[in-house]
Amino acid sequence: MKKPFSKILIANRGEIACRVIRMARQMGIATVAVYSDADAAAMHVAMADEAVHIGPSPVSESYLLGARLIEAALTTGAQAIHPGYGFLSENPDFVDAVDAAGLIFVGPSAAAIRAMGLKDAAKDLMSKAGVPVVPGYQGSNQDAAFLAGEAEKIGYPVLIKARAGGGGKGMRKVGDPAEFAEALVSAQREGQASFGDPHVLIEKFITSPRHIEVQVFGDNHGGAVHLFERDCSLQRRHQKVIEEAPAPGMTSEVRAAMTEAAVTAAKAIGYSGAGTIEFIVDGSGPLREDGFWFMEMNTRLQVEHPVTEAITGVDLVEWQLHVAAGAPLPLAQDALQINGHAFEARLYAEDPSKGFLPATGKLEHLAFSEHARNDSGVRSGDSISPFYDPMIAKVITHAATRTEALDGLLRALGETHVAGTATNAEFLSALAQHDGFVNGSFDTGVIERDLTALTSSAPLSEAHIAFAALAALKLDPKARDFGFRLWGHAEHALRFVYDGEVVERRITLHGDGAVSLADDLNDGLKLSQLSIVGAEMTARIGDAKTLITAQVQTATRNAELLVSVLCDGVVRDLLLPDPRSGLAMAADLGDVVVAPMTGTIVALGVAVGDHVEEGTKLGVMEAMKMETSLLAPRAGTVAAVLCAVGDPVEGGAVLVNFEELAAE
Ligand code: ADP
Ligand code: ADP
Ligand code: MG
Fold first, then answer.
1. Cβ–Cβ under 8 Å, residues 420 and 573
2. Helix axis angle, 316-324 to 305-312, nearest 10°
3. Which of 94, 215, 479, 574 is the right S-S partner for 227, CB 3.0 to 4.6 Å?
4. Hey, which of 241, 389, 391 would you mutate to test ligand 1's pocket, going by the most ligand atoms within 8 Å of its Cβ?
5. Closest CA to 50 of 30, 22, 26, 65
6. Is the pLDDT of residue 504 over 90?
7. Helix, strand or coil for residue 130?
8. CB 498 within 8 A of CB 575
9. Rounded Cα gap, residues 253 and 230, in angstroms
């Protein structure tokens, strides 16, 4: 197919901006990114060919300023604007302005967006087109007593929805007529505050509901196809958490009925581009042809579009760009088929154990599984800004069967290492192992019902502490061929802070190359067969049959050392309040000499077995063009020399070990 554009502007940020830029590049299209103050060094800016600063960090002063975006497109010579999702993607006035500027909006017409923009009008339209809609009241009378009467007629429980709502906002479930008046006021208030529109509709609340949506695609020539369904029933506060395609339990009859209704809906508004028809489905038993109802249409690319891409092999962004340039749909309906099963989990910087409080801060380390597609807009060292959605990545897996794809998701989540900020990774892993979800029998209430179990975080394990200690002490058993054997029984004391609690351990290095950890309650968790290769540490813990592996990352933050350990699929960040405090304590015991800073060893005048006096110069290191002498902390016998002339050493690394003093 011919190249649809030579240059486009992406009016978005984060993962979706990166996602679009990546595809555009593959198609040979030049890209223009836009950015706010907070995003000056963001990944999407670095990825694009050009970038235009559009304003201060708040979205109302940057990403929502349509005129600035259009101006940026015109000055850079972009021919089209891709809106991503969120921001201005479903704003028909913006589409009109883009058209008026002689640019192409990568998405549907303003008229199509208007037709679907308000949930009440959209339901009327769909109902007239013969698409089943959720029973309810979606008229213009907004009198509280009248609406209460309608709710009574519909039958409780009901759902009050802001007609302009989105992202789960402005929605209230009401189970009892006595609560109706208050819920109405609060839904109206939220509708006004979030969308500038207090108008609501009342719907029957479908019990045991499942959210199943159909991906549709139209072109400018009257063509419309569907790309099958996605199940997005795993939700928290009406927001999707894990999505999959196809839907579990789907039959060919129900699929035919739902996809036909979706294509009918798209055709009814002359839809062009990628869109999603969302249905609420009766999940109380097997799926039925008369058991699904239209909820709303999202007239844009959906966050969860990758699961559809995985099972169909279609790149939806590539299609969007071709279709926006006037090309017909690249494939006909009968050329589309489902291949296997896919999952997507939304990885957020938020703390499920603290009510899903959004977390901000620097991602000291960020590594994804090689066994998944990871759509992200941040890199190691980037920060999660308080100004925007705290999504870190979407983790997507695809396999021949649902079981394999879900196993793959669990594995990929367990291989994802985010250090420096809280994430919902453990919550996502717990969900991926939830019985109902694993069996494919679940509804949108699962998370709410099992919230306590799903958000309870496992206690800090001894393995995590042990690996953190090895990293903090920079002990490397394989670094020198003389290993631990000559070390004697050096003892170190470490004091970590984990989640506000102090964790103290005494670490003893044994002559046989093993390490043991003790605290006041326990003595002797023994680690043997240690191996450290880069960030990967392996050890046998206790007399376990198998070796256990961890990924350990360290970062210095102000005066603190952050040690982040990924072990058994769980990440734990431990803090060493002063990187050298633990070592200083060990040095007080007089058993070690540590590098006072990061530098190079330039001289060594000591060997194993030497007897030295307190203050004897053992060696010299150079750092920042200055030489520093390494002095013996006490009189004693050298048990090990853990460095050689010319070695680069990190600040805090143990350089020389003394034999223990005989106990008095
Ligand atoms: P739906 O409209 O059905 O909820 P999506 O989940 O695809 O569909 O996205 C909802 C919209 O809300 C998107 O435009 C997205 O940018 C935005 N969104 C999704 N999650 C959040 C969140 N946690 N905070 C703010 N906005 C969000
Ligand atoms: P939004 O625009 O915020 O995405 P939706 O109308 O798509 O609003 O509804 C969001 C979610 O609320 C759905 O995915 C579903 O889980 C739940 N929901 C919506 N309508 C109903 C209903 N009538 N009965 C039960 N649950 C519903
Ligand atoms: Mg929705």
1. yes
2. 100
3. 215
4. 389
5. 30
6. no
7. coil
8. yes
9. 16
